[in-house]
Amino acid sequence: MDHSADAHRTDLMTITRFVLNEQSKYPESLGDFSILLNHIVLGCKFVCSAVNKAGLAKLIGLAGETNVQGEEQKKLDVLSNEVFIKALVSSGRTCILVSEEDDEATFVEPSRRGRYCVVFDPLDGSSNIDCGVSIGTIFGIYMVKDGHEPTLNDVLQPGKNMLAAGYCMYGSSCMLVLSTGSGVNGFTLDPFLREFILTHPEIKIPKKGKIYSVNEGNAINWDGPTAKYVEKCKFPEDGSSAKSLRYVGSMVADVHRTLLYGGIFLYPADKKSPNGKLRVLYEVFPMSFLMEQAGGQAFTGKQRALDLVPTKIHERSPIFLGSYDDVEEIKALYI
Question: Is the dihedral of CA 38, 91, 104, 141 positive or negative?
C-alpha cells in the first residue's frame, strides 16, 4: 500500500459529503437535516475522544447519581449526555430531545427551536466502561408537523415514522452507522483527519446467520418460545451445524456484529422483566430501523417492532432482531 499517496487523498467520501449528496436529491430541502446530522457527528467525535482518554481524565467511576432507570450513572454517562444535549440544542434544528439519562423530555426554547425531535441513548453499554469493552451512542430522528406547538406526542410515534436512525460505536475503531431511510452505510473515524470516512457502503445483513446473541444467564426466567428457539440454536433438529453464541452485553457491539455477520440478537421478556428491558424509543426503534433498512427484521414477540406505538418516553419492550430467516424462525414460535 502506498501510504504517502494515501495521506494526500482528498477524494474520500466523508459523512458530511455523503449527507450533502443525499440532500441534493431533494431540491426543496433547506439543509436543516444536514445541519442536525453534522451536530450529531460532532457530539460523537467529542464522546469518542472522552472515551479514549477516560482513565487518564478520571472519567471512569460513578458520578454518585442514578438515572431515571434506577441505574448508577457513570461520570462518562453524565458527560456524554451533556455533550449531546448541548450539541443538539445549539444546532437550532431541534424542538424535543429524549435521553435515556433524563427523567423528562427536554423542550428547546422557542428562539432556538427547529423541526426535529431526537431520541438518544448517549452512552449505551456504560456498565462495560471500566473493562474497555465497546460502547456507543444510539439515536433516532423524527420530524414535527408544522403549525403546532411541540408536545410529547411528537416523539410518541411508531418507529416506522422515523426519518433517520443510527449508532456510533466506540471500540477498537470508532464507527458511525447511519440510515436516512434508503439503506444503511457505515463510516469509520480517521484518527488523523478527524473525519468519518465511508468504509462500509450499503450494508446488507446476510439472510441467515450462524450466530445467536442472548444473555443465557436469564434462561431460568425465559418463556417457552425463547427457550425453545435457543435450544434449536444449540441442538438443530434438521442436522445442520449449531449456531455459535456471542454476547458482549453492550447492545451497540452485539447489534453491530449481528448487522455485519448475520444471525439474531435476542432480548426477550422474562419473569424478572415481563415488559422487556430495552427502551423502545432510543434502543429498540433505532436498531430495528437499521435492521430493516439492511434487509433484516425486528420483532417484539407480538408484532413488527417498528409498528409499536409507545405511550411513555422510557417504555420498554422485548426485541428479537437480525437476519430475515432467523427472525422468521422465532416468529413462528410466538405467533
Answer: negative
79, β-bridge pairs? none
What is the tens place of the pLDDT at every residue in 105-127?
999 999 999 999 999 999 998 77
Structure confidence at residue 129 (pLDDT) = 76
Which of helix, strand or coil describes residue 61? coil
In the three-class reduction of DSSP (H, G, I as helix; E, B as strand; rest coil), residue 252 is classed as: helix
Query: Cα–Cα distance between 236 and 243 in angstroms, integer?
Result: 9
Phi-psi region of 54 (alpha: psi -120 to 50; beta: other; left: phi over 0): alpha
Contact 85/119 with Cβ under 8 angstroms? no
254 residue type, one letter: D
**pTM, whole model, 2 decimals?**
0.92
CA-based radius of gyration for the chain: 20
In whole angstroms, what is the distance from residue 278 CA to residue 298 CA? 13
Reported as a single tens digit per residue, the pLDDT across 136-173 is 999 999 999 776 889 999 999 999 999 999 999 998 89
Counting Cβ atoms within 10 Å, is residue 114 exposed (0-12), middle (13-18) or buried (19+)?
Answer: buried
DSSP string, 175-243: EEEEESSS--EEEEEETTTTEEEEEE-S----SS-SEEE--GGGGGGB-HHHHHHHHHHHS-TTSPPPP
What confidence tens digit (pLDDT) does each residue in 173-201 have?
A: 999 999 999 999 999 999 999 999 999 99
E runs forming strands in the chain:
62-66, 72-74, 94-99, 106-107, 116-124, 135-143, 164-170, 174-179, 185-190, 195-200, 211-213, 244-245, 264-267, 278-279, 297-299, 316-317, 319-322
Check residue 227 and give its pLDDT. Answer: 97
Distance CA 271, CA 285 (A): 23
Element (H, E) at 39: helix 32-52
Measured CA to CA, the distance from residue 84 to residue 120 in angstroms comes to: 9
What end-to-end distance do the CA atoms of the chain give, in Å?
Answer: 53
